[in-house]
Amino acid sequence: MRVFFLILLVFTFISDSYAQMDPGARQIAMSGSDVALSDDVFSIFNNPAGLAQLNWRELGLYYSPAPFGFKELANEYMAYTEPLSFGSASLGVMSYGYDLYREVKILPCLSMRFFNKFFVGFTITIHHISIMGYGSKTAYYLNAGCLYYITNDLRSGFSITNINRATFTTNQDPIPIILKTGFSYNIINNFSLNTALEKDIKFNLSFMSGINYDITENFSLRIGFANEPSKFSGGIGINISSFNFDYAFFTHPDLGVTHQAGITISFSVEGNRTTNIRDFLKLK
Q1: Which of 260, 216, 269 is nearest to 241 (CA)?
Q2: Four-residue CA torsion sign, 175, 176, 179, 185
């Protein structure tokens, strides 16, 4: 039993270190540099403030079946956002792991819009972890984010995870506390350059950068890179009517390449996402 417990601890360390835990194939293709872009339903997991930019219902599904070839690291996400007169109400759900070790998160979220320039968002994360033979624990913590249009083409963003420093037990380190900030600039209407700095209080500062280029109304190209750990990413998006199909890959210096896919359904709206948001916010 002691040997099994040690193996389980090693697996938990590996999964925390190498699993792709930030959802959205579009976001992953840009190496997670989108904290100041945050313009689709998966923003609930990154910067919930961005959800208030949307004035339509949106549903997102994301699946990574075997990151780096390990089925034990499989993760699935679902997110939904409902527009309100002052912003949006949203819900996110995550499942990660397998029978011996599993994590589940549920994130209710409220995002608010002020003068079509400043956006704030808050999520309460209900985080449940279970280990076969060792029981389960649930923790509750608050995440928050903000997004500001400096100009019609330049945005800044900031987010923080686990504001209340929640833990699963009093004897463990806190669940990761992560600070993230960055900028997003529309060089032209269909081409955005994104940069971000991310700091987990237990790890080194990470720099991320990525671009999203909508080559046509139906096809997008994305690339990105980051350090700590060093990785390169890329992907494509295909937009057909209200359906957005996204694919992404990213590399790890030790584990190689892994792949993700997702779908986003934008109800009652079609066409280019950036154009729809700019029209809604009356940005010229």
Answers
A1: 269
A2: negative
- ∠ at Cα 173 (2, 65), nearest 5°? 70
Tell me the pLDDT tens digit for each residue of 35-75. 999 999 999 999 999 999 999 999 999 988 877 777 878 88
Contact between 57 and 267 (Cβ < 8 Å)? yes
Spell out the domains of the chain, with CATH numbers in brackets.
Answer: 2-281 (2.40.160.60)
DSSP 139-173: EEEEEEEEEEESSSSEEEEEEEE-TT---SSTTSP
Contact 84, 196 (CB under 8 A): no
Reported confidence tier of residue 2, pLDDT bands at 50, 70, 90: very low
Please check whether residue 59 is in contact with residue 41, taking contact to mean a CB–CB distance below 8 angstroms: yes
**Whole-number pLDDT of residue 79:** 97
- CB-based contact 107:121 (threshold 8 Å): no
- pLDDT of res. 104: 94
Supply the mean pLDDT for the chain: 88
Burial profile 66-102: b = 16 or more Cβ within 10 angstroms, e = fewer = ebbebebbbbebbbbbebeeebbebbbebebbeeebe
